[in-house]
Prior knowledge:
Blueprint: H1 12-18, E1 23-31, E2 36-43, E3 69-74, E4 89-91, E5 96-97, E6 99-102, E7 108-115, E8 120-123, E9 143-151, E10 155-156, E11 173-174, E12 180-183, E13 190-193, E14 200-209, E15 221-226, E16 231-236, E17 242-249, E18 254-261, E19 267-271, E20 278-286, E21 292-300
Parallel strand pairs: 2-6, 4-13
Antiparallel strand pairs: 1-2, 1-8, 3-5, 3-7, 7-14, 8-12, 9-10, 9-11, 9-14, 13-14, 15-16, 16-19, 17-18, 17-20, 20-21
Amino acid sequence: MKRICFIILITIAGISSIFAQEYSFPLYFEDSAGNKDTLWFGFDENATTNIDEQLGEVNIIGEPYDSSLCCFFTDAATTSGSSYIEIEYPLNPTFMTKKQYVTNYWDVFEIGIINHNWPLKIYWKENMFDGFTYGYDEWFQYSSFILTNWVPPGCWFDCGGYSEHWPNVKPYTDMQTDTSVIVYANNFVKYTTVSINDSISLLYLAFIQTTGVDDLEATDFWCFYQAENYSIQVNYHGNINQIGYCIFNMQGQLVTRSFLEANNSSTFQIPFDRFADGIYIVHLFDENTGKSIAKTKILKQ
């Protein structure tokens, strides 16, 4: 099916080693009135960017739907032609389907939700990813499927704000470590379509590099992109003499690795001029011991 946002830069050999076998899993939804719905997501080497009927994908645009609870994979935000999703903005999807197969997990996939009985529980089978190989080096061991949302104006993962936009402490739910999440209407941006005269909540399923590091308090570590000198300013208060850092793109690809001489300073500059605009994960660690310090997400634009 159609991908949402990002271009994948992984070698064919790497993809073959990661996705050697077909894999699929169900994603369950249940509203507060007991209504239920199920979506299926998976990998198949024969999947295309269109509806693949041979894989059980059916385009349900224009078909009757359950107005109490209806969930579907779609490309409404992708085809909007805009990076900014406004409340009740009319979008026009080319497909809506209960089942979606892809040829590459390393992406972000859109789910539309129609629900009139909040909160909504989203859950999945425990240990369903056991035996699923999605890495070929040490950095990819921290990759996971996640559920998250889009926070206006055009910012993934709440840009590190960790506010009411997602019900967890982190701005996403890691499907590798959790088995469910309960979401509310105000957790989502909503839109309408020509084919459905109802409000649709915008959810995302993604497979990304999470780095496996817990975030520290803002008083311990924070950083931001400085457009005027194309660098990341890092503010860190601690007693580490040498701070290493890795920067990943949103597909989990390591784009640079280096270190900073701390020298009891609380402010550092990381050169960022050669990187394309987009969102990156910055992971700091003790260069001498390898112990993780923190991670944050940076929006370069």
